[in-house]
Amino acid sequence: MTLSRLVPRLAPYLQASPLALILAAFLVLPIATIVMVSFWDYDSIQIFPAFVFTNYEETIASPVTWSTYLNTLKYTVIVWALTLFIGFWVAYYLAFHIRSATMQMVLFLVCTVPFLTSNIIRMISWIPFLGRNGLINQSLMQLGIIDRPLEFLLFSDFAVVLAMVHLYTLFMVTPIFNTLMRIDRALIEAARDAGANAFQILTNVIIPLAKPGIAIGSIFVVTLVMGDFITVRFMSGGQSASVGLMMANQIALLQYPAAAANAVILLIIVLLLVAGILRIVNIRKEL
Amino acid sequence: MNSERRGPGFYVLTAFFVLFVLFLYGPLSTIFILSFQGPNGGLTFPMNGTSMHWFNNLLFEKQQVGDFGGAFSRSLILGLMTMAATVVVSLLAGLAFRRRFLGSGPLFYLAIASLIVPSILISLGIGLAFQVLGFEPYWYSSAFGAHLTWTLPFGLLIMFAVFNRFNPAYEEAARDLGASSWQTFAHVVLPIILPSLIGVGLFGFTLSYDEFARTLMTSGSFNTLPLEIYGMTTNVTTPVLYALGTLTTVFSLAIILVALLTIVVLRLRRARRLAG
Q1: DSSP string computed for A159-223
Q2: Highest taxon of the source (chain A) (predicted)?
């Protein structure tokens, strides 16, 4: 085969190879390392190669693990439900109630910009609102609704969920908005001509067609919340636990094999959740 | 739906949307305001006078903890590196995926997996892999790779969206006129997709510049800016924290604005050229 014929055939491989190499080095290899180290042994100063199941046994046998996983799932379910509700209606509003394409783009960007700023700063920015002497407590006390500051606002499960909804709703808005924009408007006309009311159009036409977007958004939110540790640590003030936080603590104590075993279990659970979502909704046509 | 009068649903949803936007921007705006606290002001309202004291304190006085300038320059360089790599690698991969090739399916799923795997796993995994292999982690090596696992899938998905809407007739026309494949790419394909590439670059930069979890175990002995800010939250109890938050957010907003303006200008120029 001459060179001029060979080059076009080889081109896709050359073009795809940087991506493949980067993902192999920084995704596949690290996860393989985690799996390997999860069978290693450790003492208080170092980790060493071995093939032991103690990391898994200790993780699974500990009631702390179970309550931590349950707590993380609790956050996931609550945040998922809230972001889905908010995200769907925001996307619906942008897609069906805003009439000019320019206005749609502008309002969508308004929703997107905070996503491109620092998560840590967005978390810090809740302090003046929720703190003991924060805006909410001050206003409520001035209005005479409460006579002592509410303590549950900051450093609580409430604060964790609030911050997660604040940080992650956009991951719902974008994919749902994307699917809603692709719905053929003639379908909605047809439904109305056939006598459907607004609610029937929503439940029988729009929501079924929005399912792929809802699924993609749900995958984002579920995986982000399941793996979160910084929001939980910061917003709960160390009073609540999550799997990510448990791992971060083990890492801080240099108990890498224990953290690795936890990581493998977390990864399996996340993949099962994603597989579950994909079983319900086929997102192939979106991609 | 577009041709009729606004129903009550419109007003309810408008109110909902306005509340959502307030929810997004309200907290950010309070730290903007509070960063101008007077010298004796605290972390919450009321404002105790207004001043530039905390900005001065941040920029010109020695901080008890941390190295804000060094952290900022590391984050800036890392962001630019991630941006450049994300644009080039996503563009190449996007071009590759326009044709079928052996292993395209698995590579695609690998990229999606990169989005799904929790950040802390990437962080732990890369940290461990470097330790096992005996490499020293640095922000420009291990953290750079960790950031790419987050920005590349986004870049790739944007490139998919771009090439799905790309009309191959432009390329065929160029080829019929005798352009080589490089000329076709450089003079036809690239100008058309340039605005989207700027979008990819914007994602690459800002996601890297703000990344925390993936940097935690991979940055080695020097902190990036998000790590520095997080460190400050546990030690610093003055509005200097808000001054830093305000400055980095204004910086992010400026970057976003520059990128958006560039996209708008490119679009307008192209529209004018097509019209004339």
Answers
A1: HHHHHHHHHHHHHHHHHHHHHHHHS-HHHHHHHHHTT--HHHHIIIIIHHHHHHHHHHHHHHHHH
A2: Bacteria
More confident residue, B3 or A43: A43
The better pLDDT of the pair B232, A275 is held by A275
Contact A116 B14 (CB under 8 A): no
**Contact residues, B window 114-173, toward A, CB-based 8 Å cutoff:** 114-122, 124-129, 131-132, 145-146, 148-149, 152, 156-157, 160
Digitized pLDDT (tens) for each residue of chain A, 287 residues in all: 466 677 778 888 999 999 999 999 999 999 999 999 999 988 877 788 888 888 898 888 889 899 999 999 999 999 999 999 999 999 999 999 888 888 998 999 899 888 888 888 888 888 888 877 788 888 888 888 888 877 777 888 899 999 999 999 999 999 999 999 989 889 999 999 998 888 899 999 999 999 999 999 999 999 999 999 889 988 888 788 899 999 988 888 888 999 999 999 999 999 999 999 988 887 766 55
Chain B nearest CA to A63, separation (Å): 23
| Backbone region of residue A62 per phi and psi (left: phi > 0; alpha: psi in -120 to 50; beta: other values) | beta
At B51, is the pLDDT very low, low, confident or very high (cuts 50, 70, 90)? confident
Query: A275 to chain B: nearest residue by CA?
Result: B116
Residue B32 to chain A, least CA–CA distance (Å): 9
Distance of alpha carbon B109 from the chain centroid: 23
pLDDT score recorded for residue A286: 59
Angle between helices A207-226 and A157-182 (to 10 degrees): 140
Which pLDDT score, from 0 to 100, does residue A226 have?
A: 93
Report which of A184, A192, A191, A189 is spatially closest to residue A209, judged by C-alpha positions: A184
Count of CB atoms situated within 10 Å of the CB of A165: 22
Rounded distance, CA A223 to CA A214, Å?
Answer: 14
Answer whether B14 touches A (CB < 8 Å).
yes
DSSP letter for B98, please.
T
Contact A130, B30 (CB under 8 A): no
Element (H, E) at A47: strand A47-48
Helix intervals (H) in chain B: 8-34, 53-60, 68-96, 104-116, 119-133, 142-164, 169-176, 181-184, 190-209, 213-216, 225-235, 240-275
User: Distance of CA A65 to CAs A79, A222, A260, B49, Å?
Assistant: 21, 19, 14, 49
* Chain pair A-B, CB pairs under 8 angstroms: 259
Q: Has residue B158 got a pLDDT over 70?
A: yes
Say yes or no: ipTM exceeds 0.95: no
Does the domain made of B68-236 have the CATH classification 1.10.3720.10?
yes
* pTM score, whole prediction: 0.89
Contact A135 B30 (CB under 8 A): yes
Tokens of A147: 């006579």
CA B128 to CA B44: how far, in whole Å? 41
Phi, psi for A41 (deg, rounded to 5): -110, 160
Please name each of the domains of chain A with its CATH number: 63-286 (1.10.3720.10)
